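Sequence of Putative exosome complex exonuclease putativeribosomal RNA processing protein 4 (Leptomonas pyrrhocoris).
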Amino acid sequence: MSSGVVIVGDSICGGEINQKLSTSAEEVYLRGFNTFAGNNPSDVALIHEGAGEIVAAINGHIEVTDRVVSVKGLLPRYQPEVGDVIVGRILEVAGNKWLVDVNSTQTAIMLLSNVTEPGGMLRRRGRGDELGMRQLFDQEDLVAAEVQRISPDGVVSLHTRAAEKYGRLCGFGILVSVRPSLVKRAKHQFVELPDLHADLIIGLNGNVWISWKKAADDTAEEKERESEARQNVARIANCIKALSAAQIQIHPASVEAAVAASLEAGFSAFDVSLDKNQEAFLARVQDIVGIKRRR
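Predicted 3D structure, token representation.
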């Protein structure tokens, strides 16, 4: 199913109006968040004549989860949910916690007790650990973390204890920030691109970290590969910026398709950033993954 952009009053599915979902004639969908019933009001939309109709209540992207149709709003700020993978920036070290910018309406917090020490050690933290917090994360550091909980007043708590891939983001890499509503929830937010020697962390808060995957050896061949890998990281970053400018949702499949299309067109990493080239290769992205573009 393609994930398109709708405006208030657009028919998403059902009835005899142009359908936004690529479905078979017998599929059944339920109304979810930010939708309402149109013709033949019902909580269920059958994709054939005379069935209920699901209509968008806000401007946004269509999202379908287990046949429940919702619309994700085009909001400029991130709306966190428990379990989200985010890429944030440390704003301040305060007491036994870090304050983290996650592109939301409030600054998130990350407690010292919710951070794994180097080597995976978990233990009770004391005053000495608080004095050494800047050795773990300091101001302006980028960090990959997960939303652990959200308090009733909206304060977001983060942790980095779930996997080794969480923690400080260092080494050669590029941070690309896009509108959070353009980032589509996917099975994996951590993406490996082995052919390009690059790794991605697609933060659901709109921050995407693209890094060079350095090999363990330090041979002449690896040093030559390093220059190519840096070009690849720049290419991926420019492809994501192009997807964002075209209002195309960003997820592993669309990023990989954009990179493949840019290589197929013979564009350099710099060429991808030129407006005159983007229309051609983004049209190819649409062909590869069937993404509906916003006009």
